[in-house]
Amino acid sequence: MFDNLQERFERAFQVLKGHGQITEVNVGETLKEVRKALLDADVDYKTAKDFTQRVKEKALGQEVLTSIKPGQLLIKITHQELTELMGSAAAPFTPSGNPFTVLMAGLQGAGKTTHSGKIAQLLRDKHGKKPLLVACDVHRPAAVDQLQVLGESIGIEVYAEPENKNAVEIATNALQHAKSNGFSALIVDTAGRLAIDEAMMKEISEVRNAIKPHEILFTVDAMTGQDAVRTAKAFNDALDFTGVVLTKLDGDTRGGAALAIYSVVGKPIKFVGIGEKMDALDTFHPNRMADRILGMGDVVSLVEKAQQVISEKEAAQLEAKIRKNKFDLEDFLNQIQQLKKMGNIKDLMSMIPGMSKALKGIELDDNSFKQVESIIQSMTPEERSKPDIIDARRKERIAKGSGTDVTQVNRLLKQFQDMKKMMHMMTKGKGGKRSRMAGLSALGR
């Protein structure tokens, strides 16, 4: 995500390297490259031009302190403007009303049905709601079946009238059904088209008027760039939606949609889809996205993801084992499995400052850990807790059981010992203060 944009920004700021002060010439050269980077990310020309003009005006109007280099100052200003460009702060999503009603809109293929399920799961798991999914796509073949299969997979009921082709009637009946049966949230999946047309807009407008939703979420594919922004504007003109769900942000996206939607349409991105799993939905934070675009990582989001899979108690127990130098291969295996639950591995690594650059060109996914898991799982419980007892004969057995060779087993054991030493050193300090690693779940509270 945004790898190319990040690289282009980095090259742009290299122009200022070695300069002792900000001048109109060196700022102009830098921002020319920034503008090119934005255009390459499929941001429209006006937005890119206005953005660089604002940065230039702020940069030339500030004195550079002796403790701050010109490049650092320009990065700071650029970060502020990027954050403003994307909406300043996370947009509120406050489920109120009974039932709290969400209308999902967007073109076909943007991930609207899948994200209807994700929103429903979010409302249940994080907001304590009893959600009902509503199948109002009466045009696409198998759309109702798709939503029913999805609902079954996450344990959420789906309201459908397969023989009824009137979306307004279905939505109205679903709302009454929700009120009568104790559902506290209603998520209505509507029909999309391959392109905007009058019939689609008329139907979804009538559904909106009939059920009066609390939220209208426009779902758009992040990989469509300027087209996403144009489509968002057309839907907003017709529906006056409350926010955007930007999907496929984990893909090979240039980032134009994320950067420009708010400034062009005036409506915030509320959620971003970051994978195919049903829990792969994040709140959109403009400042954190600016961090990532400028190569600063996103430690806060990483911490929040860690909190979802490791409790404060588990973190404390792990930290105690590390401090006593009792962290073993069983603990290591558990940590790998918890890391995989947090989402796409490469995306997670890119949240660590500087890691995105280090991982450039490296293929990294859940499969990267399969060999490590296989080797550890081929060990006995005693071997996992006491790796020092693993002699040549045991290594041969482990290698055979895991489909690897002795060299790979040796490499894993050495890497584990090196990591164990480093982790033990990190926990040393006054009063058993929690280490940065073991205290991940406490940082974002």
CATH architecture annotation name of the largest domain = 3-Layer(aba) Sandwich
Number of spatially distinct domains? 3
Q: Could you tell me how far the N terminus lies from the C terminus, measured between alpha carbons in angstroms? A: 27 Å
For the biggest β-sheet, the strand order reads 3-2-4-1-5-6-7-8
Largest sheet: number of strands, sense, barrel closure: 8 strands, mixed
Keywords:
445 residues; alpha/beta; Four Helix Bundle (Hemerythrin (Met), subunit A); Rossmann fold; 434 Repressor (Amino-terminal Domain); 3 domains; 8-stranded mixed sheet; 8 strands; 55% helix; 9% strand
Short summary of the structure?
The chain is of the alpha/beta class and 445 residues long. The chain has helices at 3-14, 24-40, 45-60, 70-85, 112-127, 143-154, 167-180, 198-211, 226-239, 256-265, 286-293, 299-309, 312-323, 329-341, 345-349, 355-358, 370-377, 381-385, 392-402, 406-426, 440-443; strands at 100-106, 131-136, 158-159, 185-190, 215-221, 243-247, 269-273, 281-283.
